[in-house]
Amino acid sequence: MTGAAPLSVAGVEKRFGGIAALSGVTFAIDAPGVYGLIGPNGAGKTTLFDVIAGETAPDAGRVSLGGEDVTARAPHARAARGIARTFQECRILPEASCLENLLFTAQPKSLAAAVLQSLTRAPGVDAHRVDEARSLLALVNLERYTHEPAASLSFGQRRLLEIVAAFLARPRLLLLDEPAAGVNPALLETLHHAIRTMHSQSGGVFLIVEHNMEFIMSLAGEIIVMHQGAVLERGSPEAVQASPRVLEAYLG
After folding, report:
1. Dmax over Cα atoms in the chain, in whole Å?
2. 45-77: per-residue pLDDT in tens?
3. Confidence (pTM)
4. Higher confidence at residue 104 or residue 233?
């Protein structure tokens, strides 16, 4: 749909027993860019990612991608429509090579393809995709590990591998869940540069959950703040950092 917001979340609610993880979350991202999603522990950030990606069904509300309501769509169907994500626990294939990790992640996300992947993990991609994968490994300084098993990487390097693997399919919406967590300062600079470079290549929406405030404030053009399962504040990094409501949520 021309002119439709790349991502729209409307009135999303989710309860786990007696706990309200999401309480009417509503916001729209109307233009490509790098967006930060922050908030104190327990604010509902990862649950919201799970709802957007289709891994958790909301109790109420709607998620739309490019004007299409995807609330009832399965995760593989949303992936086929341009959603990709990473996870806090860094999901890679440790015994596969770094190149194989990228090629496997970039395969078609139809249900049939997903079943085939789980049985064979055969890349089955063309030379152009291989070249793209190699370029992304070089972007995060992993080219020397191209044919080495991912298990040989440090934790921070595995995080970088997972991020570039998620990007290889050129998603319209890339969800990064705490990409800086566990990454040492030297690799943080590589990560920062890689995210900026990938976004400049894709022109899509990068939505990033992050607790490292220095990292996300220097990276995102706009920040969405969650507190107690709802959107508390939204604005530029400077405006958010100066907001009394945000300061109270973090310090009070």
Report:
1. 54
2. 999 999 999 999 999 999 999 999 999 999 999
3. 0.90
4. 233
Over 70: is that where the pLDDT of 3 sits? Answer: no
Is residue 3 exposed (0-12), middle (13-18) or buried (19+ Cβ within 10 Å)?
exposed
E strand segments, 169-229:
173-177, 205-209, 222-227
Place of tokens 């009832």: 72
Burial of 114 (0-12, 13-18, 19+ CB in 10 A): middle
Nearest alpha-carbon partner for 229 in 6, 58, 1: 58
Kindly list the domain boundaries of the chain, sorted by start residue. Answer: 7-251
C-alpha to C-alpha distance for 227 and 148, rounded to whole angstroms: 42
Q: What is the mean pLDDT of residues 225-251?
A: 93
**CA neighbor of 126 nearest in space, from 108, 145, 151, 146:** 108
Q: Select 7-251's CATH number: 3.40.50.300, 3.40.47.10, 3.40.50.150, 3.40.50.720.
A: 3.40.50.300
